[in-house]
Amino acid sequence: MNTVRTLEILKEDWPIAGSFTISRGSRTTAHVVKVIIENGETRGTGECVPYARYNETIESVVEQIESLRTAIESGITREILQKMLPAGAGRNAIDCALWDLDAKRLSKPVWQLAGIARPVDVLTAYTISLGAPEKMAADTVKATERSVLKIKLGGDGDTERMLAVREAAPTAKLILDANESWDEKTFPSFMKTANEIKADLIEQPLPSSNDGVLESIERLIPVCADESLHTRAELSQLRKRYDCINIKLDKSGGLTEALLLKKEAEAAGFMIMIGCMVSTSLSMAPAMLLAQGAQFVDLDGPLLLTKDRSPAINYDGSTIFPPEPELWG
């Protein structure tokens, strides 16, 4: 095989429909980094979203990827990549591009190369951004055809937000995402309300730096680790704190680690949530392999944009279908 490759790194901006707001702020554009690795006429692509919460910027991630240009163009493998870069957005883009490159080079889909079952369509949650209770209720009404909603919370005022959303969507499955905005004092009251509205999951209620208290606080509904969980390295310390983990490719550093993380987490008894950053179909495509059999799926990134890539992953309402090879994998 000819291992002489070329690497291209692209910085892209994708407008968000309206705005996307969580406890840490609001944005109107999804900033992504796209990696293209070519080997002759074969091309593999991957996408990542640098995240400030993890001390990442577009510039720092591009620099990180660029630092491996020689290794990538000389034929680096996914296994070696895991040792050369830490988990994070940069490794994710490279890792997914290498999976895609191998799939196209060998004319085999990634699911076969990974030794897992052929992916099928799954139901994704749809996100309601953080805002005033009245605004969130109105946004929820607009999404009444969606049976699973992810509700962004922000601390003060969350009781009113939860009640307003439940009234607007009396039968929807609800995932509540606090993004680390609760504390030890507010947790019992907010959890009581979450239980009263029959929410199905609460995601990362406490800061990752103070989530040890979850071992001694009553959890009336399942609690999911997001900011507290990146790779397999954190699993052992989280078992008494969380009932579920949110696996995101940009946190795990790519599909290679994410597949191992999912397997190990399931063996340890965790429920699985597969999440995403606000990004295009190129980010959703590899995540679809992880979504198989997951109890919670949150892959609505492209639904929040004003436009998507072409070709794009196919959505029918909140049902998301496996990607076609022309997109990825």
Name the features.
eight-stranded parallel β-sheet; 2 domains; globular; Enolase-like, domain 1; TIM Barrel; alpha/beta; 22% strand; 32% helix; 329 residues; three-stranded antiparallel β-sheet
CATH architecture of the largest domain: Alpha-Beta Barrel
| Overall body shape | globular
CATH superfamily of the largest domain: Enolase-like C-terminal domain
The major sheet is characterized as: 8 strands, parallel
Helix-strand string: EEEHHHHHEEHEHEHEEHEHHEHEEE
Neighbour order of strands in the largest sheet: 5-6-7-8-9-10-11-12
Q: Helix fraction?
A: 25-40%
CATH class of the largest domain equals Alpha Beta
Q: Domains counted in the coordinates: how many? A: 2
CATH domain topology of the largest domain: TIM Barrel
Kindly estimate the percentage of residues that lie in beta strands according to DSSP. Answer: 15-25%
**Uncertain residue ranges:** none
Structural class per helix/strand content? alpha/beta
Mean pLDDT: 97
How many β strands by DSSP? Answer: 14
> Termini, distance in Å?
20 Å
Question: What is the CA-atom radius of gyration, in angstroms?
Answer: 19 Å
Overview of this structure, please?
There is one protein chain. The chain is α/β, with parallel strands linked by helices. The chain has 2 domains: 6-107, 2-Layer Sandwich (Enolase-like, domain 1), CATH 3.30.390; 122-320, TIM Barrel, CATH 3.20.20.120. It has helices at residues 58-66, 69-73, 78-84, 89-106, 110-113, 133-142, 158-168, 187-196, 235-238, 249-252, 255-267, 281-291, and strands at 6-22, 25-39, 42-48, 122-123, 126-128, 148-152, 173-177, 201-203, 223-225, 244-247, 271-274, 296-297, 315-316, 319-320. An 8-stranded parallel β-sheet has the order 5-6-7-8-9-10-11-12. Strands 1-2-3 form a 3-stranded antiparallel β-sheet. Strands 4-14-13 form a 3-stranded antiparallel β-sheet, with no helix packed on it. The radius of gyration is 19 Å and the shape is globular.
